Fold this protein.
Amino acid sequence: MARPANLSNAVYEQLKGSIESGEFPQGLKLPTESTLCDRFGVSRPVVRSVMERLRDEGVIETVRGSGSFVLKGKSPEAATANSDPVNACSHTMMTYKFQGIGDIIKCQETRMAFEGEMAALAAERRDQADIDAMEQALREIIENNISGTSTVDADMKFHETIVLATKNDFAIALYETMRPHVKIGINMSSGLYTVLPDFAVRHGLQEHRAILEAIKAGDPERARWEMRNHIGFFGDQLGKYS
């Protein structure tokens, strides 16, 4: 029978290997302790020691009441950097690895500026097809929330439809480079929903609806404010519960 230290090392190698292979990519919320115990056939103390080791190495970050998220995992294939400034920016962003909660909050600050302006432009340039796409994404968020299904993909789609509505190819390209990092933030926000039901209703439903209504109304100032408020409010919550 393997000694506890050897058992812990074995589980560590397997879990880290799953992260490095892309089974648990950057931004993903890891399975619960109980699920990991069942997967590896070990006790909670063994899993906890492995998680602590991965945290110490900066591979994962645990948010109280939310779970553990992969910070240094396999990300989408980096775009080849060349003399094109947009491609160079893309390469830099897609290869950047979050080092902790502080980096997540910095990303939220960047999103406030970028997505706030995108919402304002969308309010000016959106057409009916754009509005239909936003409404469909919002319906998916609501339906998934009711059924208890993850809202992350629908949430990502909602934000993407707003950027697409700007009709700005540079903005769309830049948003694509941010996608893995945006997903980390959205994963974390959805992870807080179970422990903060009021936050779930406000952030997950009411704020999305408010953004959509401002864009539909063609009100760029209100659209900008609603988007900045939406992203900034999560940053405040993350700071409180980290």
In short: Confidence is low (pLDDT under 50) at residues 76-95. The chain has two domains: 4-70, 85-241. Residues 107 and 182 are 8 Å apart (CA to CA).
